[in-house]
Amino acid sequence: MANGRGVAVAGIIGAALLAAALLVPAMQMGVDRPWLAVIVMVLPVTALLTATGYRHYGLARAFAVALAVTVVAGGVSWLVAIFTLVKALSGSGVGLVWAVLLFATPVLSVLALGALALRTVPTQPAPG
Length: 128
Known about the structure:
Largest sheet: none
Shape: elongated
Order of helices and strands: HHHH
Low-confidence stretches: none
Number of strands: 0
Structural class: mainly alpha
Mean pLDDT: 89
Number of domains: 1
Strand content: under 5%
Number of helices: 4
């Protein structure tokens, strides 16, 4: 199982970076079509986490973990984006801290939730 766990860890790191890379395109689409922004963020990250986690968790459990991690991380990222937007629209300006927080949130959320899943979700049973 160590190899499957290693691939899952690599997938978590890759998914965290992918989530950060998809943040700007999703935000641009989210203005007019929020459902498309959700698809742009959730689909690739969930697919990557599922593909890299199936050897460790099994396919169904890997998909459930990937979807849970992605949806929760996306929700947290969305909240930070809303607070950043409200701060910008209030006229007070968005400082460097908010800009860094905006892009660090998806990375840190996926990393933290992925690591939590590795520690708490049971692995797939060993074959017979």
